[in-house]
Amino acid sequence: MNNLEQKIEAILFISGDPINIKKLAKLSEAVEKDVAEALSSLKEKYSSPSCGIYIIEHGSDFQLVTKPEISPIIKKIVKEETNEILTPAILETLSLVTYLGPISKSSLEYIRGVNSSFTLRSLLIRGLAERIPHPEKKNSFLYRPTSDLLKFLGVSSKEDLPEFKKYQELKETIENE
Known about the structure:
Blueprint: H1 3-15, E1 19-20, H2 21-28, H3 32-46, E2 53-58, E3 61-66, H4 71-83, H5 88-100, E4 103-104, H6 105-112, H7 117-126, E5 129-133, E6 141-145, H8 147-153, H9 164-176
Antiparallel strand pairs: 1-3, 2-3, 4-6, 5-6
Helix pairs in contact: 1-3, 2-3, 5-7
């Protein structure tokens, strides 16, 4: 596998969301034609029956996903996740989404200093957070608390949370950096 393929594979893996070819080219510091060739090569690589993942293409968007025949084990993992207690990492992410949401994954990762894909996925599966389209960035998402979570916390809106204004100031500081 060449260096560009490795970069694209890593970007698709870390993102978890569909990414268009223009953004892949920008992130991998390559031209779109070369990115398209690398994607084609990766798609061929993942077409092997021995691979559990593959790349789907929808228009100019690409995403790394698990193969449908692997779904029984994925369902088992998801079921076990929802039965587990909330870990400190999940609680930290939940707090940030609740106080600072709607917030982007990149902002969460900047604050936490670690990849937040797994914890966000856990929150989505549990119905504690929801993903909404970013109003300014196509193919990007924001995360916010669900109304069920706010109801569980006994507040009618997140503005009713303790020290809410303090966390809004933090969010503004981060967004201005």
